[in-house]
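Structure tokens please, single chain.
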Amino acid sequence: MWMPPTDHPLRRLFAGLTEYTFQTTLGVADPPLVDYLSLLLTRFIHFDDIYALRDTAGRPLFELVDMLLEAQKLPAEGRTTREVYRHIGDFALFWTGLFPEFLERSRCHARAKDAFVDYCTQGKRSYLIASQFEGAPYQDEAPILRRISEQFELCAYGLNQVRKEWQQLTQE
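Here you go.
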């Protein structure tokens, strides 16, 4: 997974837009949550990071249903399980918040398995599962994942507002 350095212009842009939107527009003053969401935007700059989960043959998984099926095959207590569910939550939040129109189009596609999946429900569930790994080295991130699970719709709405802010920047 690619992660630009802290002083990278895109990372600073996403951090500033996310902080501004959540604090000013939504009145959410939760720096760890805002930092997590801005890093999510930064991580998902690359297509390969959005579709990082693979099936047993090594092929990327493009639909949430397939990701959930792969996650169910993993042992419940493993680090990999936590990372997979965290990624599923991130994936669901990314598409729900930033590109809800993509979800609507994909649901209309006759062969899309995701047409029958509620991204919000699965995102909340996935973050909740990932948040249950509270021991080292996850003790700092577990409460954030739990808050995202509980406030998934607010986070999705906030990310949608972040998108509007960055679109406004490109029109100026």
